[in-house]
Amino acid sequence: MAKLKNGGFEKGSLKNWKTLGDTSIETASFGAGPSEGEFQALLTTFGSSFTAKSSNLTARSSELIPSSESTLKASSKSSGAVSDSDLEDFLSLDTGTLDSLNNGNVIQGSAIKQKLKVKAGDVVTFDWKFLTNELTFDQNPQTFNDFAFYTIDPPGRRTEPLLFELVDTDQSSEPFITSQTGLFADETDINPNISGFGTETIFFEKGGNYTIGFGVVDADDIGFDSGLLIDNVQIKRPPDLTIEFLEINTPDEVTPNSPGSVTVRVTNEGDLTAEDIDISLFASVNKVIEFNPNGAGSDAQLANLTIDTLEASEFQDILLPFEQVVVGPPGAFHYIASVDPSNSIAETNEGNNEAVQLVSLPGTNAVIDWSSTFLNAVQATPGSTSDPDSTPPFHAINSGIFHSAIFDAVRLTTEGGENYTSIFVDRADLPTKLATLPPGKVSAEAAVASAAFTVLSEIYPLETQQYLKQLRITIDEAIASGQSARSVALGQKLGAFVGEAVLAQRAKDGRFKAQSQLDLPPIDGSKYIWRPTTPEETTGLLPGLGFVDTFAIPNLEGNLKTGPVLQGETFGFLEFFPEPVPAFDSPEYAAELIEVQAIGGAADTAVTEITRTAEQEEIAAFWLNDKLVTSGPPGQWTQVAQELATSQNLDLLDSARLLAQMGTALGDSAITAWASKYYPELAITALEVQGIPVPEGVGLTDTQPRPSTLINFIAGTDSFDETIQDPDWEPLFENPNFPDYTSGHATFGGSASVILDAFFGDIISEQTPVDITTQEIIGLVRSYGSFEDAAIDNTLSRVYAGVHVTSSGVVAQEAGEDIATFVIQNIAQPIV
Question: Using CA atoms, how far apart are residues 291 and 298, in angstroms rounded to an integer?
Answer without folding.
Answer: 5
